[in-house]
Amino acid sequence: MPIVFDSLDAILNHGFDTVIDVRSPAEFALDHVPGAINLPALDNAQRAAVGTMYKQVSPFDARKVGAGMVVRNIADHIDGPLASKTGAWRPLVYCWRGGQRSGVFRTILSEIGWRAETVQGGYQTFRRLVNRYLYDRPLPHRLVLLDGNTGTAKTAILPRLAARGVQVLDLEGLACHRGSLLGAMPGGQPAQKAFETNLAVALQGLDPSLPVVVEAESSKIGRLTLPPSLWQAMLAAPRIVLNVPLAARATYLAQAYREVIADPQVVADRLRPLRRVRGHAVVDRWVGLSQDGALEDLSLALMQDHYDPAYDKSRRIDEREVIRVVEAAALDDAGQERVADAVVTALEPF
Predict the structure, then answer these.
(1) pLDDT digits (tens, 9 = 90+) for 206-236
(2) CA-to-CA distance for 337 and 91, rounded, in angstroms?
(3) Are residues 102 and 40 in contact, defined by beta-carbon separation less than 8 angstroms?
(4) C-alpha angle with apex 215: 217 to 136, nearest 5 degrees?
(5) Buried-exposed string 89-112: b where 16+ CB fall within 10 A, e elsewhere
(6) Which residues are known catalytic residues?
(7) What contacts 150, CB < 8 A, 6 or more positions away?
(8) With bands split at pLDDT 50, 70 and 90, how would you rate the model's confidence at 314?
């Protein structure tokens, strides 16, 4: 009988040696159970062909043709990635809804002698559990926002806090985006579902009885949207605000974003949407600074002309409690270490 998982914690701590996702590579790429390997019963082209046959010819012919493809693919997996598995190996297999693909895969593995099981409801069960965790109830975590103007090294402070034993939630790392027009990272962002899976796993690993430091963000990071439960918890969370002189922030930002702002074409492309907000003359001046290689001047101008005014506007609306204002004269390694120490001290009452 397929295994019934009734909580996210249960499926994440499944106890099997390997989780096998037998969906197509395209389905797997959008999202999957953490740690799963992809051994597709049908590849992308085969799945599309069988689906077309099901609609245009007949369900019987589609199942017949699909069965042959599935069996041949499973044989290739057994001769390939699974060839070294011993008799004691215990795999957990799932497909889209716990139906034919995973059932056939499990049957063949079981006939060999492996103790294979399937997931009741397949990936759809896992997705429902993620949704329930992130959407259906308030999060139990005690969040503290690390806040401050652009260029105050908030993201860089998080791993320094983690090294000091503080629980942190790195939303920009999970979203693969720095949260601004210039914030795109190599490789692009994950799908929304994959982001939510990674977010749920990260939250599951945190102790709700201890504070969790998270960088102050908007409700969207790049094209990804924060789940309502997390966003509401962030709106209600107290803040530790980093206060750093403009010149020190410009120095830090020029270094942190060097690979982006050193390319005038990238600057022009990514800042194009701001022409409607800040005007052509302002954006042209920014692009010109990039062309001249004046990266600190460009960082300074971006903060003065755009980021700081936007932050000031949001701050006028924001009434959250401020625990501590941490002052920093510089944001080099030593300066960031001092900031991290000050944040840890500010967290002690919590």
Answers:
(1) 999 999 999 999 999 999 999 999 999 999 9
(2) 45
(3) no
(4) 65
(5) bebbbbbbebebbbbbbbebbeee
(6) 95
(7) 180, 249, 253, 302, 303, 307, 308, 311
(8) low
